[in-house]
Amino acid sequence: MKLQTFPQGGVHPHDRKKLTRSVPIRSIPQPEALTVALHQHIGAPAAAAVEPGDTVVEGQVIGTAGGFVSTNVHAPLSGTVKEITNVYLPNGIRSAAVVIDVTSETAESTESGSGADQPARNGRETKRPDWENMPVKELIQELSNMGIVGMGGATFPTHVKFSIPKGSRAELFVVNGVECEPYLSGDHRLMLERTEDIFAGIRVIRKILSPERVIIAVENNKPDAIAQLSKRAAVEGAEVVPLKVKYPQGDEKQILKALTGKEVPSGGLPIDIGAVVSNVGTVISVYEAIVMRRPLIERAVTVSGSAVVSPSNLRVRVGTPLGALVEACGGFSGVPAKVVVGGPMMGFAVHDLDMPVTKGTSGVLALTSEEIGESRRTPCIGCGGCIAACPLGLNPTRLFKLVDHMDYQRAADEGLMDCKECGCCAFTCPAHIPLVQGMKLGKRIVVQRKKKDSA
Amino acid sequence: MTTVASKRITPSPQMHKATSTAGIMWTVSACLAPALLWGVYVFGFGALLVVAVSVVACVLVEWGMGALLSKRTLNDGSAVLTGLLIGMNMPPELPLYIPVVAAIVAIAIVKWTFGGLGSNWMNPALAGRVFVFFSWTGHMTSWKMPATLSGAAGVDSVSGATMLSSVKSGLFNYGGSAAGPAAMLSEQGYPRSNLDVRLVQSIGDLLEPLGVRFQRGYVDMFVGNIPGCIGEVSALLLLLGFVVLLARKIVSWHIPLSYCASFGLLVWALGGTRFGGGLFSGNVYFHLFTGGLMLGALYMATDMVTSPLTGKGMIIFGVGAGVMTFLVRFFGSFPEGVSLAIIFMNVFVPLIDRYTGPKRFGMQNKEGTS
């Protein structure tokens, strides 16, 4: 059978997943302090619920949701609150953060890590055997309580996504195991190492969304994951669909186009075509939150790139400084040309390795200049490469020029706000014009102007 | 604060495909090289001199304009490519100030007055060529027989005429009985190489059962044993270079295919009438592989700056160029129409681009659901 993919646009960057895909996820030594940002999801930041000097236990709420589109934030490890300060996060957001000194604690938890077989921690009750009898509303509320957000990188609060608007129905639930960003292999490892938990998570989500179909979508550069998931899928009533490798297939709009042929309307959400998409990591944390009563306090992070001594997949507590991850992988081999948090296509370049891991940190990459492939910028030569690469059918070179000429209204009319910032255009451009970068700027300005107008 | 030694803070994407403008320009230049070398081989050192002068002139003018406007553009490779294309579009022997003037028109006027690389609306090399063509038409249409034909019968009798111009002038007062251009040339005693003598028969025998007539001169036209511009004669080597460009995804098939297909279709449908044949009896092979069509359709019409952005637009552009080439070749006063056709279509590119944008995702069901 011919493998499915989305038809329009997309690019094929060198995926370089070989560096880490066969490296099992492992824990790292516990850092001395954790810096837990209160704004690590899309939406309103959480409000600090602790004060300096407080003792916190692992899993305790330290920040309470600041609205509907927001979630709780928990203490990733037990310790003492040293201070509440402001930090910059990799994505450029300045956020309040709770700094927890964990040296006072016995090095209890990091090595034992997480997992389905985790016994009771810190005397708290863990398992929730009766979750199936809970009403859907409570289950969704519990996701917010447990701080569950999308772990593909966008960190959209999961309880919001699962609160289906009136009149809509989630006929299709997609487990997103595409992992189309180069280098990253955390989701790949999760699918291999925590297959059971994924299906357990699907059972919980079935209860919440009651979809007719559940599809686990995996790009076919992960054949072992496809094989392993397929073994269980039939029993669980889910389908595993291998997809042809193409970036940005992990985007909701593209994955749904590839699977169903339907297009999420411009400006709309997947639920507009009766679908909900969640990343594999999110599905596992839904299971942990509901069945194991374990809040989202750690995640899998791929540390990779040619400037890292031993690229690995790590299980890391939220709030761990990036430097600790690099150290756990043997440090840098030479001076990296760029350090990137996330994947290389949509991730953020950072200079400060004290920045903390957040719920959305899927990777830490130390890239050499060969890997970056920079070149001098020249004028647009009209090759049309960006148009051919855009999965949303936009005309990036024109939108870039419109933004450059500050004709924002026209740019918005021609689809600027549809841009998902996947970066295919800028990646492709032989003239090395910062196309998507310009469009991001344009989007921000359009949003600001709208706010101003309505104010 | 632990700081990474490198302070490169850039918005995403953090990696880039291994492409660059200069890379494209140099690759196209390299793909033109075999056809150029063939031209030098059959037309002699003089041909190399013409191309060298035009490349050097283009580079100097580019440097001069850059210096004037304090921009450094030499290393984008575009001036060398323009120079190559101008040189390859020249007859093998002509006064060397002609390529220099062509270079000045191409680079200084057509390219830089509009803002340099990427801003010109007309293909610079073609503009330069057309300018000097109409300024020194005599020099621009005095040809030389390829060395591979020397010694062949009839070389002296038609020296100074390309196949297309022989046919065009032959048709003014035609009383012969040839059914097509190839037969007409053979009637005129147009010279052919030994290779042609040897191969046409055997290829013809092979193709006969298929109902295809492989005629005298066909091998010469394809390989490049014909008079013409330095770089246009070898269809074989031009195609070879083009395959490399296709494989490296530097050009797409849209323009060359739609150009050649629309042109070929018109020649096939209407081209035979000039010889008293009915409709659908034109000689497509002859018209595809003589004159500047291969060089034009594969390398000049595909110039990124002066061609449309999307596949749809490129097809419209190619079809337009095909139709124009047909009109000029068959009904114009010149035997050749490729340069004029491409420049004519260059004018329409902004208009074509306006109406052939990509299809936006999620627009067909914007109102309501699924």
What can you see in these coordinates?
The complex is a heterodimer of chains A (455) and B (370). With 455 residues, chain A is α/β, with parallel strands linked by helices. Helix content of chain A is 29%, strand content 18%. Chain A is built from 15 helices and 17 strands. Chain A has helices at residues 109-112, 136-145, 158-162, 186-193, 195-209, 223-236, 252-260, 280-290, 322-328, 369-372, 385-389, 396-404, 408-413, 424-428, 435-454; strands at 25-27, 33-37, 47-48, 55-56, 61-64, 73-74, 79-88, 94-101, 172-177, 213-219, 239-243, 275-279, 298-304, 312-317, 338-341, 348-350, 363-367. In chain A, α5 packs across α6 and α5 crosses α8 (280-290). In chain B, α3 (78-88) packs across α4 (97-111). With 370 residues, chain B is mostly helical. Helix content of chain B is 57%, strand content 0%.
Shape of chain A: globular
Q: How many helix segments of chain A? A: 15
Helix content of chain B: 55-70%
Largest sheet of chain B: none
Brief summary of the model shown:
The complex is a heterodimer of chains A (455) and B (370). Chain A has 455 residues and is an alpha/beta fold.
Present the secondary structure layout:
The complex is a heterodimer of chains A (455) and B (370).
Chain A: E1 25-27, E2 33-37, E3 47-48, E4 55-56, E5 61-64, E6 73-74, E7 79-88, E8 94-101, H1 109-112, H2 136-145, H3 158-162, E9 172-177, H4 186-193, H5 195-209, E10 213-219, H6 223-236, E11 239-243, H7 252-260, E12 275-279, H8 280-290, E13 298-304, E14 312-317, H9 322-328, E15 338-341, E16 348-350, E17 363-367, H10 369-372, H11 385-389, H12 396-404, H13 408-413, H14 424-428, H15 435-454
Helix pairs in contact in A: 4-6, 5-6, 5-8, 12-15
Chain B: H1 21-43, H2 45-68, H3 78-88, H4 97-111, H5 124-135, H6 137-140, H7 155-158, H8 163-170, H9 181-188, H10 194-207, H11 218-223, H12 235-247, H13 254-270, H14 284-289, H15 293-300, H16 311-331, H17 338-355
Helix pairs in contact in B: 1-2, 1-3, 1-12, 2-3, 2-4, 3-4, 3-5, 4-5, 5-17, 12-15, 13-16, 16-17
